[in-house]
Design goal:
Distance between the termini: 30 Å
Helix content: 10-25%
Low-confidence stretches: none
Oligomer: single chain
Shape: elongated
Mean pLDDT: 80
Order of helices and strands: HEE
Number of helices: 1
Strand order of the largest sheet: 1-2
Length: 66
């Protein structure tokens, strides 16, 4: 219990000295949605991947601490 309290106190003191904290959001393409490779074909080449106009994106939160 004391160790947890000391750790929280040290983190609080360290963050109190930070004068510049920026938070922002941005959208990033989801890499797990890309269709790559042979897509299950054992022989020959697979047909071309259909181009999607609405590529799924993920909203990310960025925090810069200086």
């Amino acid at each position: 219990m004391r160790l947890l309290l000391i750790t929280i106190l040290l983190i609080g003191v360290a963050l109190a000295g930070c004068t510049d904290v920026k938070t922002y959001t941005f959208k990033k393409e989801r890499v797990d949605q890309r269709i790559e490779g042979n897509r299950g074909y054992l022989i020959g080449t697979p047909p071309p991947v259909p181009v999607e106009k609405n590529v799924p994106k993920r909203t990310m939160i960025g925090i810069d601490i200086e």
